[in-house]
Amino acid sequence: MSDPERPLQTRAEEFLTLFTKGAELTRELVHENAHLRRRLLQMQQQTRLAARDPADWERHRRDLLHRIEGLEGERKETLSRLEELEHENEEFARRQVEVEQENNSLASLYVASFQLHSTLDLEEVLRIVVEIVINLIGAERFVVYLVDDKTGILEPVASEGEPAEGLVRIPLGQGILGGAALARGATCRDATASEDPSAPIVCIPLRIEDRPLGAIAIYNLLQQKDCFTPLDHELFNLLAGHAATAIFSARLYAQSERKRNTMQGLLQLLTK
Amino acid sequence: MQKLRILVVDDSPTMRLLLSMALRRQRTFELVEATDGMDALKKLSADSFDLALVDINMPIMDGFTLIELVRKNRDFQGLPIVVVTTEGASADRDRAIQLGADDYVTKPVQPNQVLRVVNALLKVN
To answer: What is B4-122's CATH topology?
Structure first.
């Protein structure tokens, strides 16, 4: 084949391709046109039918209203359930805080009680009482008094933040502290009231049954603590009973030890 | 699972018991107790710890000195330190933080409060 013939054939092929594409496009357009005609006819028919049958429209409307009503009901129910769940959630969170608080209190009470009964040495018991009052109650200035069995006078035996000259002996039943030592429970006044710094804000009587053993007088709290908590009141009760028992046991043990030593000494003298 | 070791430094046995009880609720913690700053230094040198709870007022060596020495020692520089003390003055808090304490909790403490602080520093859930 000669060269001048080649472009003619190429052009013929291009024309054929173009023609084929044109034919395809035309077929697609005809198909689409037929589809649109059918849709138009369907819609015209629907409109005619609907217009002819208002009862059908009414039925549709009622169905839709019914459905809306149903959905409204569901929405209300869901909202109410959500509210219930929120309420339950709040209650659960509140309970959790309470349980946590209770756990904290129990831990502090357990530690205080465990420590008080961990020794039979009076000095050690008094040191533990001081530790509890500082670390668990948060007192800055306080005095622990024990009753002298012979004189019936409250003698200061341990203190914190109180100058030595401020430590005075108090007869049982006299004054605020003397009276509070005979009371059945802790005597408290407003921890923030500071009109008289010499008056204790709380007096905890130490007693076994009807026998007064002493008292703890707290004069002020650590600066970061502004009031007593429910746990503090539990600790006052614990100290009133358990500290008294621990002190009583330690004194008894010391007495029996002294007696035992005396007996041993006597025995050694006799057996020599 | 390896336990996280916490050193509780307080001269009060009552506080040591309370803090140990609070932290033992978290089973991943192992507690070691020290009675003062010097005792704490010995224990820190002998073993590795993940955190220390330090009181301020202690005999032999107080908490401030302990924090200062710990921060000067390269071996313990990354050790988180939480101060647990009765000292509520802001000057004491500032001093402790300046010396290198990571947190400052004042007594009387709530066991869960200490647990929260420790968990936050150790990134424990």
So the answer is: Rossmann fold (3.40.50)
